[in-house]
Specification:
Number of helices: 15
Number of domains: 1
Number of strands: 0
Oligomer: single chain
Mean pLDDT: 83
Helix content: 55-70%
Radius of gyration: 21 Å
Strand content: under 5%
Length: 291
């Protein structure tokens, strides 16, 4: 029992370090997230699978080829959902075999770990859902982007791993705020002539909460037969499913821009006087836009 608790604490600690470094889209950190999911989510997955099997679409889902494979092998007219998804899944950030790599990580930890073919197919649906949230709502793979995605997902596909990541992220943010409550205020004052920084650490809480409520108002992405819509115009799919109505990810996108400013100035502070002068000159020429 002690070894299990120690291992789980280490998993969360490693994730927190990756999140703080904003490296969640690095290959090694993706493997870490997979390890967290496969360790914590056995019970969550079985519960969600039972919920999913009650849907009319479930039988068809288990008979279909994986959506990602169909899209990457297919040919679609420009402007269709299929064409847009093919461009999306052709990006390097989305090239990993998450199901296969995740199972390897789980079996490396526990040689007895195994899943049925149905469970394995459901795992592919879970990762498809995650990618579709990034795709439809233009959420990046940064730390706050992933937190937004997990918040949205938990509204319809609650799972232990995602809850723990969100919970410990909220706690870590609070501790950072308590530890240095005026650090950002000082930075904002020092750079006010170049940048107006509208961000504080508690903004992360708001991002997660807003994403959760957007997810509450939208359909469960796993319940939709995307195969049937691949040749439809993307804008019509979005309109019909109501993805663009009442969607409030505007705050998330604003915070991403503010975090880029903070990161730029922290990087600036680590440079020597000559490099700082060059960076500041380039920033002014770029009209304050981060480069």
């Amino acid at each position: 029992m002690f070894e299990k608790i120690k291992y789980e604490f280490n998993l969360i600690k490693r994730w927190s370090a990756a999140a703080e470094a904003n490296e969640l889209n690095n290959e090694g950190e993706i493997d870490l997230v997979l390890e967290i999911m496969y360790h914590f989510d056995s019970k969550s997955n079985k519960r969600l699978l039972k919920k999913f099997e009650k849907l009319d679409y479930a039988k068809t889902f288990f008979e279909q080829e994986t959506l990602r494979d169909v899209v990457l092998k297919g040919k679609f007219l420009r402007g269709t959902l299929g064409a847009a998804l093919k461009d999306f899944w052709s990006q390097p950030n989305y090239s990993k075999d998450l199901v296969g790599d995740g199972l390897k990580a789980a079996k490396k930890r526990d040689k007895k770990y195994n899943v049925t073919e149905k469970e394995k197919k459901f795992w592919s649906g879970i990762f498809m859902e995650h990618d579709l949230i990034h795709f439809f709502f233009h959420i990046d793979t940064t730390t706050v982007g992933e937190l937004s995605n997990l918040g949205f997902t938990c509204a319809k596909s609650f799972r232990k791993s995602f809850f723990l990541i969100l919970f410990f992220s909220a706690i870590a943010t609070l501790f950072d705020y308590i530890k240095n409550p005026i650090g950002l205020l000082i930075l904002r004052w020092n750079v006010r002539k170049v940048h107006s920084i509208k961000f504080n650490l508690l903004s992360i809480w708001k991002i997660m909460w807003k994403a959760y409520w957007v997810g509450k108002r939208k359909p469960w992405l796993l319940s939709i037969d995307w195969h049937m819509r691949l040749n439809e115009p993307l804008h019509l799919v979005e309109k019909e499913l109501g993805f663009m109505s009442g969607v409030d990810f505007g705050y998330y996108h604003k915070v991403e821009k503010e975090i880029e400013k903070v990161k730029w100035w922290l990087k600036y502070g680590k440079k020597g006087p000559q490099e700082q002068k060059q960076l500041l000159h380039a920033l002014v020429l770029n009209r304050g836009k981060i480069f």
